[in-house]
C-alpha cells in the first residue's frame, strides 16, 4: 500500500499555486498550500516531531501505522457553542493521482450510538486495521479511499470521542443527530474549502438507515435556504438499513425461519403474538407472549453470530462480556439489538473490535489524533453506553423521507449483505416494494474476480443490490465485493 513520496520541486509548487487559483479560487488556494507544505512525505509511520500551525487537525504521525502517501486529518468541530457540543471526525484523503478532484464520502455507522471511527475507519473500509495486540496498524487492500476522499464522523455527541458540556444532550434522537451532522458539514467545508464544491455522498449501515436519508433530506432542505452554503450532494448509499420497524422486524423472524435457525412453532408464535411496529427489534414494550416466543427464538438460535450467520464468533472475555451486556438490553424495553457490531471479518481475525478499543485508548494515539482533548470521563468504546437514544425514533419509519428523496435528483443505492440476520435482506426487499418504484433493469448477478458478488436490480429512482456472503457490515465481511460495489456507484459504471 505504501508508495514513494512525490517530489515537489519549486516548479511543481508554482504550477500547483496557479492551478489552485484557476480551479478553486483564493479559499481553495489556501487549502492547497497547506497540503503542499505539510502533508506529502510525512507518512504516518514516522514521527516528524512537529504539528502543522496552519492546520491543527493534520495527522503528522500515527503510532504503529505503515507509511502512507495520502494526508489525514482528525479532531473536533463544534456544532453548538452554547451547549459545548463537539463532534469528532477522521478525514482520509483519496489515494489517487489528483485527490482534490475526487469526490468526498461521509461514512456513518449505526447503533444508534456506535462509532464510525472504530467501525468504518478501523474495522471496515478505512486504509488500516489493527494487529491482534492493538499495537500496530496494517494496510487494508480494499480501502474505500482508493476511490473517494473519506470522512468518518462520530455522531451523535456521546459516541466515541464526541462530547457535550451539557449532559442532557446525551438524551437525543434522529432530529438532533441530523441537525448536528449538517452543522458539522457546513463548518467542515468552511475550514476546508478545497472540498466545498466536491461531489458529496453520504454512506452508512445499520441504524444509519435512519441517519443517512435524514441527513440527505436535511441537506436538500438546507440548500434551499439562500443564506446557507450549498452542499454538492450527489447521492447516498446505505447497507442493511434499519428503515421501518414493522417491516424489518418481520423480515428478521422470516429470515431466521427460512434459514433454519428457529422452529416452525416458534416462528408461528412470534408472528401471531408480536406487534412488529412496537418492538425494536423483536422486543415488545411489556412482558407478554411476544417476549416469551422471542426468548424461545433466542434460545433456539444458540450462540451464533447473528450479524453473519455462517461466521465464527469472538470468544475473548471482552467480547463475551459485551454480548452478555447487549443481550440484557434486549430483555428490556430499551433498544439494544443493533448496537453490537458483528464479530468477524473476512480474512481478518474475529476479535478486531477488541484490538480497535486497545488502539484508540492508547494516550499517544489519542494525542496523534487530537482526540480526547478535554479528558472525557469515559474510555473510548465502540458503542456508547452514555447516549440515551429516543425509543420512539427507533420505531419510526423513514419511508416518508424516501418519498421526498425520490423526488430529488440524487443517486440512491440500497445494498444488503445476504447472510445478516438482524436487519436482513428479506426486510429490505419488502420495504422497497412499498415505495413508488418502477423496474428499469431486471434482476441479474454481478461478478468480482469471476465470482458472483451479488445480485442487482435497477429502478427508475433507486438501485438495489445484494452482496453475496456478506453480513450486517458488508465491507467488514466481504471487503473486495464492497469496494467493487462502491466504485461502481461512485463512477457510474455498471456492476
Automatic annotation (TrEMBL):
It comes from the Eukaryota. GO terms for biological process: proteolysis. One of its GO terms (cellular component) is extracellular region. Residues 1-28 form the signal peptide. Keywords: Carboxypeptidase, Disulfide bond, Glycoprotein, Hydrolase, Protease, Secreted, Signal. Its EC number is 3.4.16.-. It is found in: Secreted. Its main location: secreted. It holds the Pfam family Peptidase_S10. GO terms for molecular function: serine-type carboxypeptidase activity. It is an enzyme of class 3 (hydrolase). The keyword Ion transport does not apply. Belongs to the peptidase S10 family. PANTHER family: CARBOXYPEPTIDASE, SERINE PROTEASE FAMILY S10 SERINE CARBOXYPEPTIDASE. This is Carboxypeptidase. It comes from Physcomitrium patens.
Amino acid at each position: 500500500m505504501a508508495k514513494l513520496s512525490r517530489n515537489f520541486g519549486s516548479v511543481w509548487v508554482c504550477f500547483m499555486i496557479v492551478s489552485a487559483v484557476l480551479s478553486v479560487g483564493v479559499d481553495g488556494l489556501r487549502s492547497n498550500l497547506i497540503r503542499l507544505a505539510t502533508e506529502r512525505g510525512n507518512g504516518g509511520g514516522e514521527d516528524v516531531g512537529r504539528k502543522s500551525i496552519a492546520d491543527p487537525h493534520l495527522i503528522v504521525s500515527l503510532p504503529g501505522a505503515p507509511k502512507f502517501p495520502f494526508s489525514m486529518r482528525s479532531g473536533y468541530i463544534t456544532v453548538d457553542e452554547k451547549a459545548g457540543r463537539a463532534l469528532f471526525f477522521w478525514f482520509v484523503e483519496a489515494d489517487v493521482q489528483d485527490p482534490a478532484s475526487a469526490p468526498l464520502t461521509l461514512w456513518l455507522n449505526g447503533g444508534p450510538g456506535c462509532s464510525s471511527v472504530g467501525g468504518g475507519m478501523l474495522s471496515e473500509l478505512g486504509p488500516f486495521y489493527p494487529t491482534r495486540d492493538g499495537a500496530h496498524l496494517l494496510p487494508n487492500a480494499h480501502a474505500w479511499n482508493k476511490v473517494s476522499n473519506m470522512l468518518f464522523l462520530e455522531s451523535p455527541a456521546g459516541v466515541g470521542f464526541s462530547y457535550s458540556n451539557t449532559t442532557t444532550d446525551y438524551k437525543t434522537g434522529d432530529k438532533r443527530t441530523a441537525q448536528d451532522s449538517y452543522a458539522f458539514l457546513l463548518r467542515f467545508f468552511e475550514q476546508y474549502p478545497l472540498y466545498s464544491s466536491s461531489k458529496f455522498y453520504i454512506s452508512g449501515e445499520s441504524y444509519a438507515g435512519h441517519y443517512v436519508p435524514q441527513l440527505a433530506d436535511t441537506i436538500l432542505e438546507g440548500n434551499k435556504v439562500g443564506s446557507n452554503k450549498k452542499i454538492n450532494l450527489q447521492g447516498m448509499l446505505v447497507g442493511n438499513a434499519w428503515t421501518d420497524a414493522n417491516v424489518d422486524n418481520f423480515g428478521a423472524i422470516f429470515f431466521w425461519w427460512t434459514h433454519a435457525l428457529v422452529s416452525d412453532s416458534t416462528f408461528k408464535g412470534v408472528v401471531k403474538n408480536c406487534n412488529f411496529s412496537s418492538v425494536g427489534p423483536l422486543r415488545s414494550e411489556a412482558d407478554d407472549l411476544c417476549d416469551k416466543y422471542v426468548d424461545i427464538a433466542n434460545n433456539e438460535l444458540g450462540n451464533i453470530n447473528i450479524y453473519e450467520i455462517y461466521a465464527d464468533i469472538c470468544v475473548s472475555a471482552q467480547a463475551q462480556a459485551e454480548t452478555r451486556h447487549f443481550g440484557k438490553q434486549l430483555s428490556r424495553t430499551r433498544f439494544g439489538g443493533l448496537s453490537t457490531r458483528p464479530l468477524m471479518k473476512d480474512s481478518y481475525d474475529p476479535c478486531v473490535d477488541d484490538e480497535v478499543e486497545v488502539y484508540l485508548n492508547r494516550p499517544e494515539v489519542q494525542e496523534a489524533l487530537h482526540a480526547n482533548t478535554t479528558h472525557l470521563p469515559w474510555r473510548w468504546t465502540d458503542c456508547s453506553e452514555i447516549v440515551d437514544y429516543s425509543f420512539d425514533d427507533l420505531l419510526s419509519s423513514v419511508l416518508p423521507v424516501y418519498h421526498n428523496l425520490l423526488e430529488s435528483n440524487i443517486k440512491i443505492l440500497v445494498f444488503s449483505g445476504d447472510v445478516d440476520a438482524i436487519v436482513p435482506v428479506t426486510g429490505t426487499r419488502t420495504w422497497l416494494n412499498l415505495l413508488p418504484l418502477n423496474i428499469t433493469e431486471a434482476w441479474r448477478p454481478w461478478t468480482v474476480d469471476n465470482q458472483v458478488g451479488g445480485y442487482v436490480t435497477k429502478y427508475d429512482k433507486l438501485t438495489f443490490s445484494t452482496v453475496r456472503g456478506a453480513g450486517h457490515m458488508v465491507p467488514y465481511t466481504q471487503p473486495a465485493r464492497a469496494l467493487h460495489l462502491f466504485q461502481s456507484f461512485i463512477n457510474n459504471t455498471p456492476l
